[in-house]
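chain and backbone:
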Amino acid sequence: MSAPFPIGPAMTDGWPMTSIIAGASTAPMAHAIDLARLFGGQGDSWSDALVSETRRQLGGCVSAVETGLRLTLEQDARIATALGALPPTLVWPIVLSNPGMISPLLLTHMRMRAGLALLLRQVGHADLSEDMDDAGGAIHFSSDPDSDIRHAAIELAMAEGRWAMVGAEDQPIRPDVPAEQFFELIWMTAAALGAAVMRSGLVPSAVAMAAVQEAARAALARHDERQGALAVADRLVWRLGARADAPDLLGQALVARRHLLFAALAARHLRVETGRLAQALVAGPIGHVAAICHTLGGSAPDYRHLLLALRPVRPTLSDARILALAADYGAMDDAQADGIIAELRAPEELSAKMALLTPKAD
């Protein structure tokens, strides 16, 4: 069977940039460049490891969603017959041939998730019942006397373990993403499956369209974003209450390399969504990292330590650059930092549009 959405011989030499730019009317150029880095070449801010891991996280979630939709669709004998004539893993190859299906916000989320997964992998999760405890037991919440805190800590360790799991691009990963990203994953996957079933000629188009819509809506109704790693980290911090405001806890989380917990704690202090703050740390302009550290009250040595912690996912952070950034850290004033934090508090859609009008620096 031919590929559902062939690229065509004229595009093979320049793929993916040629195929992406061909659809530039539906994809902003900055997003097209990011997609080109992800699917065939890296830019300065994308390490090879980050490219591979972003593909792994996105492809794994797509494959898991495809499996769920297939199980629902196959309850109709006609659809089951059509799907049986198709490859068992269909959607990820289609996405690989049509990267423009991936929206900017979905790519942003997957890049953040991939960056945190790489950072988590620096220490591993051999025992998911216990926290990574390089800070002398100060953040050992999985044995906390408060059962709610204890359960949230164990949930977070398990969620981190899922993110840090190694596998092939199309090996399913639980799509424990926020509702907005799950919405995109569902409709992207449903579109690919629906188009493939229609192209098979075994099912009338109207029947296929109705079936994929029903399956997609059922999956959306079942999704519980509270089980995602971001939500679990927020829940742990909320359970901690006033304890989350302890002056040394942020530093202890960073020393213990609990980057997701660090992001959730910092987000509480700064009144920013945890996902937005994690994205700023992993892939935002380096000035945003400085602003976060400044607003949290961090010193130049604190900033240097934060940059060192982020170096596995930020290839431009050489030793020399970290020293230079730390030396210039004191030049940032409260007004500059407050402006950046205000931007992180704004709706993500607004920030994304404004970013297209602002030069991007790392």
